[in-house]
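Supplementary Methods S3. Complex input for the coenzyme A-bound model.
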Amino acid sequence: MFNYFFFDFFMVYELLMKLTHVPVKKITLRKLNLTKDISNKYLKWMNDLEVHKYTEQKYTKHSLINIRKFVKEKNKSKNEFMYGIFLKRNNLNIHIGNIKLGPINFIHKTGEISYFIGEKELWGKGYTTLAIKEITKIAKKMGLKKLKAGLYEMNIGSKKVLEKNNFKLEGKMKSEIIHKGKRYNSYWFGKIL
Ligand SMILES: CC(C)(COP(=O)(O)OP(=O)(O)OC[C@H]1O[C@@H](n2cnc3c(N)ncnc32)[C@H](O)[C@@H]1OP(=O)(O)O)[C@@H](O)C(=O)NCCC(=O)NCCS
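Predicted complex, serialized as structure tokens:
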């Protein structure tokens, strides 16, 4: 009886959270571990043309070797800081995507951000909105005064996560990209910290 009550309670709670678009579980950001986090799951995300349809990653055939090399470089870098986005579930921290702060211009105190959630079934649950909130705190602690992000104009999800974090459209770059044989604009969003 007691167990059934909790089972139902949590089912209703999860459903309510989904309906209200509040993330059910919190995310954390941390640097990627070169042995534990360079997984086949991560490789699959990088070669997934649906995940990367609006990013430049789709033009690269990824391997575990080039991912490890990339993460190693970022972990050593002094002006690019890459973090895994980890979702807390049943006391485990599950790697679901990445967010990067950088390149950073320390003279002008500005930095770019880029992000993706590799697990497609976790899109639309608020996790990137939260990850951008976290990376903004990190950027402020570093003394940065402005963040910016570039995106393809048709990437509605990316535009929304930026707007939800109070980034504003600053520039439309005309006819910057080719997508499915047609030319499109790209956007730059910025946020003064
Ligand atoms: C774009 C992306 C990062 C958004 O991340 P996310 O965790 O799904 O975003 P959130 O859940 O925080 O979404 C915020 C809003 O965007 C909406 N959204 C997310 N993905 C969407 C999509 N593909 N199409 C339309 N709206 C979308 C959400 O429904 C939510 O809207 P709401 O608040 O009005 O309900 C994610 O879809 C992704 O990883 N895409 C592939 C990689 C990519 O394009 N990266 C960005 C390159 S610039």
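The chain has a mean pLDDT of 91. The chain has five helices and seven strands.
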